[in-house]
Amino acid sequence: MKRSKSSRRWLDEHVNDPYVKRAQKDGLRSRSSYKLIELNEKDKLIRPGMLIMDLGSAPGGWSQVAGKLVGEKGRVIATDILPMDPLDNVDFIQGDFTEDAVFQQLLDQLDGRQPDLIVSDIAPNLSGIAVADQASSMYLVELTLDMVRKVLKPAGNYVVKVFQGEGSDAFLKDVRTSFEKVVVRKPAASRPRSNEVYLVAKGFKGQDADA
């Protein structure tokens, strides 16, 4: 089957991408690992011993980085609808975190603890229809914010990928109601033509902040 121009361009970009090559050399699962590494360097998000939740974690690029940084005394609880190979210091739950059964598994894994940090590099399966893809993306990030408001520790932090477009400004305003400080970042590993940015939200005001 003949590849489309866009898929050929993506393949060429991917094969020649310095971050893809670097990830292979460094033994990292994905080029997106460098996005979290850069965000962590700028915003001092992860420390040894922390409890972190990674929403939409497969193939594990962010969980791998977070697991190394929290060390043996810390833990990453990761979840995705896709399978993910095991990682050190990471507990993985496969399923849709918005479903009651999976949410309960996550709560069981937390065992009464509250995460210090929730991260999400989640993205929908793209249809190629820009309006539909943007709507799907915003729906997913809103679900991650719902999770944050349910389980994040007061004064905890939240990092989420957002595609700029319809709904993204309103989402940013919504996040600001629950956090003391929110900054927008574009890591070097984000492809220049991508409209993705990362919201780094610090100082969660607690579950009642938006009530």
UniProtKB/TrEMBL annotation:
<dbReference type="InterPro" id="IPR050082">
    <property type="entry name" value="RNA_methyltr_RlmE"/>
</dbReference>
<keyword id="KW-0698">rRNA processing</keyword>
<keyword id="KW-0132">Cell division</keyword>
<feature type="binding site">
    <location>
        <position position="80"/>
    </location>
    <ligand>
        <name>S-adenosyl-L-methionine</name>
    </ligand>
</feature>
<keyword id="KW-0949">S-adenosyl-L-methionine</keyword>
<feature type="binding site">
    <location>
        <position position="96"/>
    </location>
    <ligand>
        <name>S-adenosyl-L-methionine</name>
    </ligand>
</feature>
<dbReference type="InterPro" id="IPR029063">
    <property type="entry name" value="SAM-dependent_MTases_sf"/>
</dbReference>
<comment type="function">
    <text>Specifically methylates the uridine in position 2552 of 23S rRNA at the 2'-O position of the ribose in the fully assembled 50S ribosomal subunit.</text>
</comment>
<protein>
    <recommendedName>
        <fullName>Ribosomal RNA large subunit methyltransferase E</fullName>
        <ecNumber>2.1.1.166</ecNumber>
    </recommendedName>
</protein>
<dbReference type="GO" id="GO:0005737">
    <property type="term" value="C:cytoplasm"/>
</dbReference>
<comment type="similarity">
    <text>Belongs to the class I-like SAM-binding methyltransferase superfamily. RNA methyltransferase RlmE family.</text>
</comment>
<feature type="domain" description="Ribosomal RNA methyltransferase FtsJ">
    <location>
        <begin position="29"/>
        <end position="204"/>
    </location>
</feature>
<feature type="binding site">
    <location>
        <position position="121"/>
    </location>
    <ligand>
        <name>S-adenosyl-L-methionine</name>
    </ligand>
</feature>
<keyword id="KW-0963">Cytoplasm</keyword>
<dbReference type="InterPro" id="IPR015507">
    <property type="entry name" value="rRNA-MeTfrase_E"/>
</dbReference>
<dbReference type="GO" id="GO:0008650">
    <property type="term" value="F:rRNA (uridine-2'-O-)-methyltransferase activity"/>
</dbReference>
<dbReference type="InterPro" id="IPR002877">
    <property type="entry name" value="RNA_MeTrfase_FtsJ_dom"/>
</dbReference>
<feature type="binding site">
    <location>
        <position position="60"/>
    </location>
    <ligand>
        <name>S-adenosyl-L-methionine</name>
    </ligand>
</feature>
<keyword id="KW-0808">Transferase</keyword>
<keyword id="KW-0131">Cell cycle</keyword>
<dbReference type="GO" id="GO:0051301">
    <property type="term" value="P:cell division"/>
</dbReference>
<feature type="active site" description="Proton acceptor">
    <location>
        <position position="161"/>
    </location>
</feature>
<keyword id="KW-0489">Methyltransferase</keyword>
<feature type="binding site">
    <location>
        <position position="62"/>
    </location>
    <ligand>
        <name>S-adenosyl-L-methionine</name>
    </ligand>
</feature>
<dbReference type="Pfam" id="PF01728">
    <property type="entry name" value="FtsJ"/>
</dbReference>
